[in-house]
């Protein structure tokens, strides 16, 4: 057999070639060339017969050679099986060059690299590629998305992450929540380093002086619920000018009196928001101090300040015989549950606070239709809350509806028993810009609801819970006409059936359908 093949090879090599010369020429050939010389063509892949190392050295292949190698097989496998190649490149690397390959839209993009580029990419993927290669600016953007607790944990990972987390842009707009129980010399410098200017005190067992002195650029201070806060404690904290303080919350601090308001009016001249909800010891004198010292005040909450009366509102609006008083820039005023407030206070507000936009008079039982007539003269009034004002009737709503122009976007008449379909006619004709309307427990029927649905095309929130006279016909009309409605409250509407609910579910923009106990605050 061997001799026959030798003769065939000699015949192929040509005449005049000896066997010794042919053997020497074979010694200079590799196995692939020998087998090709025997059969005249490459009938199989020589790589299948040659054992190779798990990590072979790279060899520069002959461009004219058509043999299949392991590398080319892997590339073809990735292309046929649609396996995307994702290569991470640090921002400091500017030497690598990518050659993109345009493919069809439904196929993933594959990055094809040269032989030298592949070697460099393998080095990066093997050892030097991690999140540490990201610039601090990119880490900062990532850390901004985290909550406060996670940001604190990230700062304990490594020094680089700690330095990045402590950048002021990461904590922009964040509010620190603290328990002021014992001295901590590193707490306040840490807040200043991170640029935190908003602080909420959860519990107070020591003086506020360390907080105010430790965070000199304090913009917001929330002391809500600190029951042991007294005038003496505020005196030690607010004992110097605080020009950067914009927001102060003292709600539910029941031991705070007018003396604290005097100190606040003296040292916090640039205060814009003051919350005194539940401070039952505040009197009309405190409102006089506010109107005298806080000329920049825009938001004032006096909820459940039971000692405030019409005389104090007169001080606040500057109508009384005090020419230097008056919070003329006030935009939001909450008088909820102030039982001594009457129509006289609403007259003061209409005359002295023409720029007011939001007014909350809920549970003010002494407010009547006469007071609403005064409020109709405020051109910029946008939100009005008359919840549980029992003495408000259709006549007062008529005064509001006939105001020209009417910029009301939110009106709450819940639990006003004297409001009926006549009020719906005034609302539909004069308050066409309403986006939120609350009529819970009002005496309205399908006819009044139909008038509202026809004219209030911008209405997005409608609360008609406990309106026992509403039937399926009114809801069917509502689902047909109110295309912009997003939320509706139907709690306690006993005459509704499943057919009306199914009609509401077909509304495109309607997201919330409440049929259970629900209160909007």
Question: Explain this structure to me?
Answer:
The chain has 521 residues and is of the alpha/beta class. It has helices spanning 2-13, 19-27, 31-39, 70-80, 115-128, 136-143, 148-154, 159-165, 187-193, 209-214, 231-237, 258-267, 284-293, 310-317, 343-352, 369-375, 394-401, 421-430, 446-455, 472-481, 498-505, and strands at residues 99-100, 111-112, 175-180, 198-204, 220-222, 247-249, 273-275, 299-301, 332-334, 358-360, 383-385, 410-412, 436-438, 461-463, 487-489, 512-514. The protein has a domain at 2-97. α15 packs parallel to α16 (369-375). Residues 15-20, 41-55 and 82-127 have low confidence and may be disordered.
Fill in the keyword field for this structure.
521 residues; alpha/beta; 14-stranded parallel beta sheet; two-stranded antiparallel sheet; 21 helices
Quick structural summary:
This protein is of the alpha/beta class and 521 residues long. Helix content is 36%, strand content 10%.
């Amino acid at each position: 057999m061997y001799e026959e093949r030798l003769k065939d090879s000699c015949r192929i090599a040509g005449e005049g070639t000896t066997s010794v010369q042919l053997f020497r020429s074979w010694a200079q050939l590799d196995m692939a060339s020998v087998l090709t010389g025997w059969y005249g063509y490459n009938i199989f892949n020589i790589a299948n017969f040659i054992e190779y190392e798990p990590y072979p050295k790279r060899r520069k292949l002959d461009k004219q050679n058509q043999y299949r190698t392991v590398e080319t097989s892997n590339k073809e496998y990735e292309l046929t099986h649609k396996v995307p190649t994702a290569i991470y490149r640090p921002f400091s690397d500017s030497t690598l060059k990518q050659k993109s390959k345009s493919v069809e839209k439904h196929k993933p993009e594959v990055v094809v690299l040269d032989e030298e580029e592949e070697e460099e990419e393998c080095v990066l993927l093997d050892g030097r590629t991690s999140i540490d290669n990201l610039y601090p600016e990119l880490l900062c953007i990532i850390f901004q998305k985290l909550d406060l607790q996670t940001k604190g944990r990230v700062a304990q990972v490594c020094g680089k992450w700690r330095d990045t987390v402590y950048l002021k842009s990461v904590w922009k707009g964040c509010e620190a929540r603290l328990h002021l129980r014992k001295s901590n010399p590193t707490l306040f410098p840490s807040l200043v380093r991170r640029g935190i200017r908003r602080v909420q005190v959860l519990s107070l067992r020591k003086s506020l002086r360390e907080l105010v002195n430790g965070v000199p650029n304090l913009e917001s201070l929330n002391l809500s619920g600190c029951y042991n806060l007294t005038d003496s404690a505020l005196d030690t904290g607010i004992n110097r000018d605080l020009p950067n303080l914009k927001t102060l919350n003292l709600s539910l601090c029941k031991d705070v009196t007018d003396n604290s308001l005097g100190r606040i009016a003296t040292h916090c001249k640039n205060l814009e928001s003051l919350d005194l909800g539940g401070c039952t010891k505040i009197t009309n004198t405190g409102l006089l101090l506010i109107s005298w010292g806080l000329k920049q005040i825009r938001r004032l909450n006096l909820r459940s300040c039971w000692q405030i009366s019409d005389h104090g509102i007169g001080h606040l609006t500057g109508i009384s015989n005090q020419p230097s008083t008056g919070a003329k820039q006030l935009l939001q005023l909450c008088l909820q549950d102030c039982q001594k407030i009457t129509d006289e206070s609403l007259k003061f507000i209409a005359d002295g606070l023409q720029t007011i936009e939001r007014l909350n008079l809920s549970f003010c039982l002494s407010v009547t239709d006469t007071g609403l007539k005064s409020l109709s003269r405020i051109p910029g009034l946008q939100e009005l809350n008359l919840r549980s004002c029992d003495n408000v009737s259709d006549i007062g709503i008529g005064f509001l509806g006939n105001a020209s122009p009417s910029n009301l976007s939110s009106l709450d008449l819940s639990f006003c028993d004297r409001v009926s379909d006549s009020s719906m006619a005034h609302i539909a004709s004069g308050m066409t810009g309403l986006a939120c309307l609350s009529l819970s427990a009002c005496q309205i029927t399908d006819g009044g609801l139909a008038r509202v649905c026809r004219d209030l095309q911008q209405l997005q929130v409608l609360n008609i819970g406990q309106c026992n006279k509403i039937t399926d016909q009114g809801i069917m009309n509502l689902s047909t006409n109110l295309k912009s409605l997003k939320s509706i409250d139907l709690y306690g509407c006993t005459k509704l059936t499943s057919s009306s609910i199914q009609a509401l579910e077909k509304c495109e923009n309607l997201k919330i359908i409440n049929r259970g106990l629900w209160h909007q605050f």
